[in-house]
Write a structure and sequence with these properties.
CATH superfamily of the largest domain: Spore Coat Polysaccharide Biosynthesis Protein SpsA, Chain A
Order of helices and strands: EHEHEHEEHEEHHEHHHHH
Helix content: 40-55%
Structural class: alpha/beta
Number of strands: 8
CATH topology of the largest domain: Spore Coat Polysaccharide Biosynthesis Protein SpsA, Chain A
Shape: globular
CATH class of the largest domain: Alpha Beta
Strand order of the largest sheet: 3-2-1-4-7-6-8-5
Largest sheet: 8 strands, mixed
Distance between the termini: 47 Å
CATH architecture of the largest domain: Alpha-Beta Complex
Strand content: 15-25%
């Protein structure tokens, strides 16, 4: 098996270095003949291109591809088009993996291929969220790390021909969110099965929550809403409605929980600051999700009204 690890990146240079160093330390079994790491720089301005170009000896498996800022989906497509491997592994550039990461993906793929006598499957590894930049891989697996997504590109492996048959990522998803789950819907309709691969561990680093992030998080929710509606237009099913929260049940739920918007990001900021100050950043982040969900759902219904969608 020849594995191509495809990583889109945009202004994540410090954690990207940790991601790439971890991939250089892979301990391979006989299942894997070789592997490459394709980094697609989606127009970064933080020195990513310059550093990787000057320090090629540190990352012998890495091939750097440059493109204008077109979004993660387009970057992944670009990476797949340049991939030499017969298996594609997608991870994000803020994911630090263990030394056995590729081996476990390879084992679970091969076992599934033998059992089903076809390659219509993909492996889905564990994604463990952490704010520990210095030692991300010491974070324990938590209940909040459980994902119900069908196909999320934070940690998956799939046969390249099966992936290409799906049509790859839709470049219409230029803003944040849903491009991988939309591809997942097409894979599901093709009969491609999800194979859980919990031992293929990736540690997803993100900075600890602070209220300074709130404007960015609001912007992300509005982008997710727009892309969620794009997702629904391509797959107008109840399943997708539920995924993107485009139902009156969701609308009523978040309106009630926020007392029709009275509990908003501005009003709860002092409470969140107090929680963060006392070491409860994760709790503060969970509380913030309530008004953020209302922002997302209101935005979806507003955009849907503009387009005459019900």
């Amino acid at each position: 098996m020849f594995i191509s690890v495809v990583i889109p990146t945009y202004n994540r240079f410090p954690i990207l270095k940790k991601c790439l160093y971890a991939l250089e330390k892979q301990q391979l079994s006989s299942r894997i003949d070789r592997y490459e790491v394709i980094v697609v720089d989606d127009g970064s301005t933080d020195g990513t291109k310059e550093y990787l170009s000057k320090n090629k000896d540190e990352f012998p498996h890495v091939e750097l591809i440059l493109q204008n800022h077109l979004g993660a989906g387009a970057a992944r497509n670009n990476g797949v088009s340049r991939a030499n491997g017969d298996v594609i592994v997608f991870i994000d550039s803020d994911l630090v993996v263990t030394e056995s990461f590729l081996n476990y993906h390879a084992k679970f793929l091969i076992d599934s291929w033998k059992t089903s006598n076809n390659k219509l499957c993909f492996t889905y590894g564990s994604v463990i969220n952490t704010a520990n930049f210095e030692n991300p891989t010491i974070e324990p697996y938590k209940f909040s790390d459980i994902s119900w997504a069908y196909f999320a590109t934070g940690n998956v492996a799939i046969d390249k021909n099966v992936l290409k048959a799906s049509g790859l990522f839709d470049p219409e998803f230029r803003l944040y969110g849903w491009e991988d789950l939309e591809l997942g819907e097409r894979l599901r309709l093709m009969g491609v099965k999800l194979i859980k691969c919990p031992k293929a561990k990736g540690y997803h680093w993100h900075p600890a929550f602070s209220t300074e992030q709130i404007p960015h998080l609001i912007r992300v929710e509005k982008e997710r809403a727009k892309m969620g509606l794009t997702f629904f237009l391509k797959h107008p099913s109840l399943r997708v409605r539920l995924m993107i929260q485009f139902t009156f049940v969701h609308r009523i739920l978040w309106e009630i929980l926020t007392i029709f918007g009275i509990i908003n990001t501005s009003r709860i900021k002092p409470v969140l600051d107090l929680l963060v100050k006392n070491g409860y950043a994760s709790i503060a982040n969970e509380i913030l999700r309530i008004p953020l969900n209302l922002i997302c759902v209101r935005e979806i219904f507003k955009e849907a009204a503009k387009k005459g969608i019900h």
